[in-house]
Design goal:
Helix content: 40-55%
Distance between the termini: 12 Å
Strand content: 15-25%
Strand order of the largest sheet: 3-2-1-4-5-6-7
Number of domains: 2
Number of helices: 15
Number of strands: 13
Shape: globular
Largest sheet: 7 strands, parallel
Order of helices and strands: EHEHEHEHEHEHEEHEHEHEHEHHEHHH
Length: 363
């Protein structure tokens, strides 16, 4: 009996999770029939459909109310094949374990993409309540899954402590192949970050850090969009930082900006696995990143003292940027050492591991 994979991501927008799932599904489609379920329009739909991947957009606006439809979809498929249902974000994972009915030809897999620390950092009282509930649901219901997969070693270890069940680590397909881009040392330092402009990405700390740096030769380009754009724009304008810091919005050709980048910074409060950091290192761009309690510790193995900073302390980051500006050769050598890890984060390595667990799921 054939195996069909159903990937569930409530919000299938542009971003790290969507990109990783899209790459994974396209590669797996050579061996498996694949369906994607989401509550929003799938940003990657055109490319996915070219690879015969079926996309279902549910009518529900809330994940918790979507499982009646999801169970119907599953029931229609397990009549003729075995099904692996793969949920991809913490609240959806917990709800999947609660509301999807167990059946002989069905396996429920969870992929965790954000560290447990995410549920311990709050933007406001509403966020506090949501995350407290999600944390409780993770603790109570994750153990009902057939398999749990984390996208970094630390995330997997921390999650195991909370849910009391083994968590296997499979790194996301961050890069297709290893690049050989040449890095040229310049007097100026152009910093780039590619991210959503949201609370958890902590962009205001990055802006303040660049504001506090000592050299006028240090500039920052912020590429992305999100609900914090107006707040960030106001801060830049009020502090007359327009010549030093640019909000460039969403861009399709990221490589164009990476080619002009001297330093890449990830400032998030928490990250499961920052794909953009791997992409920067693969392009031979030195990186400074926050202690974000996830994959950053798998990616940056060398030079942690100089490359990692406290996400709540803009002065810590400013000092590290100034140090980079005056010691670029040292950071280039560190980046080259960290690049030796990059093979672990390739598409081919990720797909081999996913194929193995899916093929053996019913044995």
């Amino acid at each position: 009996m054939k195996i069909e994979l159903i990937f569930f991501l409530p919000n299938f927008n542009l971003g790290g999770a969507g990109s990783s799932i899209a790459k994974t599904c396209i590669s797996l489609s050579k061996k498996f029939k694949i369906t994607i379920i989401s509550l929003t329009k799938c940003y990657y739909a055109k490319e996915l459909k070219k690879n015969a991947i079926h996309i279902i957009k549910l009518n529900s606006h809330k994940t918790i109310f979507s499982f009646k439809e999801i169970n119907k979809i599953i029931n229609s498929k397990i009549k003729n094949k075995k099904v692996i249902f793969i949920s991809n974000i913490n609240y959806a994972n917990a709800l999947s374990c609660m509301f999807i009915k167990k059946k002989p030809n069905l396996k429920i897999f969870l992929i965790e993409r954000t560290p447990i620390k995410e549920l311990l950092i709050y933007e406001n009282i509403t966020d506090f309540i949501k995350k407290k509930i999600t944390h409780l649901l993770v603790k109570l219901f994750y153990k009902k899954a057939d398999k749990i997969i984390g996208n970094s070693q630390k995330l997997s270890e921390d999650l195991k402590k909370v849910c009391g069940k083994k968590v296997e680590t499979i790194y996301p397909p961050s890069i297709i192949k290893i690049k050989n881009r040449k890095y040229n040392i310049r007097k100026k330092t152009i910093i780039s970050t590619i991210t959503r402009l949201t609370f958890e990405k902590n962009i205001l700390t990055l802006i303040k850090a660049v504001q506090f740096t000592k050299s006028n030769l240090i500039k920052l380009n912020i590429i992305g969009y999100g609900n914090k754009k107006n707040e960030l724009t106001k801060y830049i304008n009020e502090n007359k930082l327009g010549k030093k810091i640019k909000l460039l919005g969403q861009k399709k050709n990221i490589n164009k900006f990476l080619d002009k980048t001297d330093l890449y910074i990830n400032s998030s409060y928490f990250e499961g696995f920052p794909n953009s950091v791997v992409e920067a290192i693969n392009s031979n761009i030195p990186v400074i990143a926050s202690h974000s309690n996830g994959g950053i510790y798998d990616i940056i193995k060398y030079g942690k003292r100089d490359a990692l900073f406290d996400p709540k302390n803009p002065y810590d980051l400013a000092g590290k940027i100034d140090y980079f500006h005056n010691n670029k050769l040292k950071f280039i050598k560190m980046s080259q050492k960290n690049k030796s890890n990059s093979k672990k984060f390739t598409l081919s390595n990720s797909i081999k591991k996913y194929e193995s667990i899916f093929i053996n799921a019913f044995k």
